[in-house]
Structures are given as structure tokens and as C-alpha cells.
């Protein structure tokens, strides 16, 4: 028998292996365990919170939020960006309105 | 006590009726859950959850479908939820593992032995159950209900809330996919 025929035989055997399967029986004292569980009550708040946070959508959204907040903090605290933004208008304003403080030296060297 | 009487008593909160219900249906619920999750402890947990759910929501059962159909639907829904929860735990365990935690969540045991399979067929059945895990969910449900629970295609269609034709199609695809998975598995076994 070649390999392919052998594989086909095994596949058929596997597919037919559950044909005469018997129903599995539940473990004994099921009712006692059910009553115990009913008396114990529902899940705790922490279990519910863990379940909610553990959901892929919530976890992914949380991760994105953390990345976004971190990116914003880095961008806003970047010194080069801040200097450009803060100094450029001040310099322009000083040039336009001649805010430069006159010193004694400037007065003494003033040309008529 | 016939079934409508039993349900009526359950709806009135009768404890004896609940005991009778559990006695009568526990194996059906357990076997269905076991077929889906392939783990005895998990199937036991699901069986408990199903009966608690039945106890709490039997008042909402209007009798539009058969009681067994309603019970199968609850069982399948709980079993699939349980599987998803376990997969989430596994993902969380993997992330914890990256940060050095030693906790490990085992999704499924390496090999599942269904207690109802004949001894000489155990090995092949284990391979079939492993392949069953790899096929789409609705095909797996149809296969489990038909093959493990012995439900007819018509009953499977009622439980899955679909048509007879759809179930025939699902079963056809399930068998084809199982054949593919099993062939792949046997092909990879080194020849002795």
C-alpha cells in the first residue's frame, strides 16, 4: 500500500471513529455544585473589570490612547519646537515696534 | 411529569422541578459542551453555568421552540463564550510572560480523550478532535451536534436557527475541511 492510500485510510478511520460514540456523562453531584455556585453569587467587581479590560477591542483602544498621549507629551515638550514657536513672534514684534532698549552707549554715539 | 408541566413548575420557582431538570438534561448539556471545549473541567463549569442560566431565565421561555432546542442554544452560547474567554486569558498570559511573569494559561490539553469513544478507536478519534479545533466555528457546531449528540440535520437546523440546506452544506464543508486537516497531519508523520 503506498503512502497516499495509507493516509486516505487513516483519514476515513478518523472520520468514522465517532460514529458509535456514546454520550459523555456529567460528573457526579452536579446539582450540589450548581447550588453552591448559586449561593456564592455572581462574579466580583474585579473579575468583571478584568473581563472588560481583557476584551481585545478595549485593550487595543487603551493601548492606542497611551501611545497617543505619549506622542502628544513628547511633541509638546520638545524644546526645539517650543523655542521656535515662542521666540519667533517676540523677535518679529521687537523688530516691528523697535522695542530695543536704548543704552547709554547708544545715546552717546548717536549721530546728528 | 411531562415537559410542559415541568417547565410550568420551573417558572414558578419549584426546586424539585429544577432537580428533575438537571437529572434529565445534565448529560446532554455536558456532552455538547465537552464536544466544543474538549476539556472535562471546562465542560463541567459550562454545565453549571447553563443550569444557573436556565434557572434564572426560564420565565422568559415562551415555548416558541422545543425546550431541548432552547437548552442546546444556551449550552452552545456558553461553550463558545468560554472558549473566547480562555483565548483572551491566553493572550493576556502571553503579554504577562513578556514582562517576566511565570503564570501560564493552558488553552487546551495536548490530547483530548472523549470518554464515549470505543477503546480501539481512541487514537483516531483524538486526531479527529484535534482537527475539529481547526475548522470554522459553525461547521464545528453542526458536526458536534450531528455526530456527538446524534441530532438529525433538521434538529441541527432548528438549534442553529438556519435551514436544512444550510446544515447539509455546513456538514459537507466540515467533512472536507476535516479531511484536509487530517491529511496534513498524517502527511507530517514520519514513516517508520
Outline the fold blueprint.
The complex is a heterodimer of chains A (112) and B (192).
Chain A: H1 3-16, H2 30-40, H3 45-53, H4 56-76, H5 79-97, H6 104-108
Chain B: H1 3-11, H2 15-37, H3 40-57, H4 67-98, H5 122-132, H6 137-148, H7 153-159, H8 164-187
Please characterize this protein's 3D structure:
The complex is a heterodimer of chains A (112) and B (192). Chain A is an all-alpha fold. Chain A has one domain (30-108). Chain A is built from six helices and no strands. The N and C termini of chain A lie far apart (117 Å). Chain B has two domains: 1-109, Rna Polymerase Sigma Factor, Chain: A (Orthogonal Bundle); 112-192, Winged helix-like DNA-binding domain superfamily/Winged helix DNA-binding domain (Arc Repressor Mutant, subunit A). Chain B has eight helices and no strands. The N and C termini of chain B lie far apart (59 Å). In chain B, helix 3 packs across helix 4 (67-98) and helix 7 (153-159) packs across helix 8. Chain A binds chain B through residues 3, 6-8, 10-11, 13-15, 17-27, 30-31, 33-34, 37-38, 51, 54-56, and chain B through 19, 22-23, 26-31, 34, 40, 43-44, 47-48, 51-52, 55, 85, 88-89, 91-92, 114-118, 121, 124-125, 127-128, 131, 147-149, 175, 178-179, 182-183, 186-187, 191.
CATH class of the largest domain in chain B: Mainly Alpha
What integer value in Å does the Rg of chain A equal? 39 Å
Q: Taking all residues together, what is the mean pLDDT of chain A?
A: 80
Largest sheet of chain B: none
Question: Number of helical runs of chain A?
Answer: 6
Overall tally of domains of chain B:
2
* Discrete helix count of chain B: 8
Gross morphology of chain A is: elongated
Provide mean pLDDT of chain B, rounded: 89
Amino acid at each position: 500500500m503506498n503512502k497516499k492510500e495509507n493516509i486516505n485510510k487513516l483519514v476515513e478511520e478518523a472520520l468514522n471513529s465517532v460514529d458509535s460514540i456514546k454520550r459523555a456523562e456529567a460528573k457526579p453531584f452536579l446539582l450540589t455544585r450548581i447550588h453552591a455556585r448559586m449561593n456564592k453569587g455572581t462574579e466580583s467587581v474585579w473579575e468583571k473589570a478584568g473581563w472588560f479590560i481583557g476584551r481585545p477591542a478595549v485593550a487595543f483602544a487603551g493601548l492606542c490612547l497611551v501611545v497617543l498621549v505619549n506622542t502628544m507629551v513628547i511633541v509638546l515638550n520638545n524644546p526645539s519646537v517650543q523655542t521656535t514657536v515662542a521666540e519667533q513672534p517676540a523677535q518679529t514684534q521687537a523688530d516691528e515696534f523697535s522695542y530695543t532698549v536704548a543704552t547709554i552707549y547708544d545715546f552717546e554715539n548717536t549721530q546728528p | 411529569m411531562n415537559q410542559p408541566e415541568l417547565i410550568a413548575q420551573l417558572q414558578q420557582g419549584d426546586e424539585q422541578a429544577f432537580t428533575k431538570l438537571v437529572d434529565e438534561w445534565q448529560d446532554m448539556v455536558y456532552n455538547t459542551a465537552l464536544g466544543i471545549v474538549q476539556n472535562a473541567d471546562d465542560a463541567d463549569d459550562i454545565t453549571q453555568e447553563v443550569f444557573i442560566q436556565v434557572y434564572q431565565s426560564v420565565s422568559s421561555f415562551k415555548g416558541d421552540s422545543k425546550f431541548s432546542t432552547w437548552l442546546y442554544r444556551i449550552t452552545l452560547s456558553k461553550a463558545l463564550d468560554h472558549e473566547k474567554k480562555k483565548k483572551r486569558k491566553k493572550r493576556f498570559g502571553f503579554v504577562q510572560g513578556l514582562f517576566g511573569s511565570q503564570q501560564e494559561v493552558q488553552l487546551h490539553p495536548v490530547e483530548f480523550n472523549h470518554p464515549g469513544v470505543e477503546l480501539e478507536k481512541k487514537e483516531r478519534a483524538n486526531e479527529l478532535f484535534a482537527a475539529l479545533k481547526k475548522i470554522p466555528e459553525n461547521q464545528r457546531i453542526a458536526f458536534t451536534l450531528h455526530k456527538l449528540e446524534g441530532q438529525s440535520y433538521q434538529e441541527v437546523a432548528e438549534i442553529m436557527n438556519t435551514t436544512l440546506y444550510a446544515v447539509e452544506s455546513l456538514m459537507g464543508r466540515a467533512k472536507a475541511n476535516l479531511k484536509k486537516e487530517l491529511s496534513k497531519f498524517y502527511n507530517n508523520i514520519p514513516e517508520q
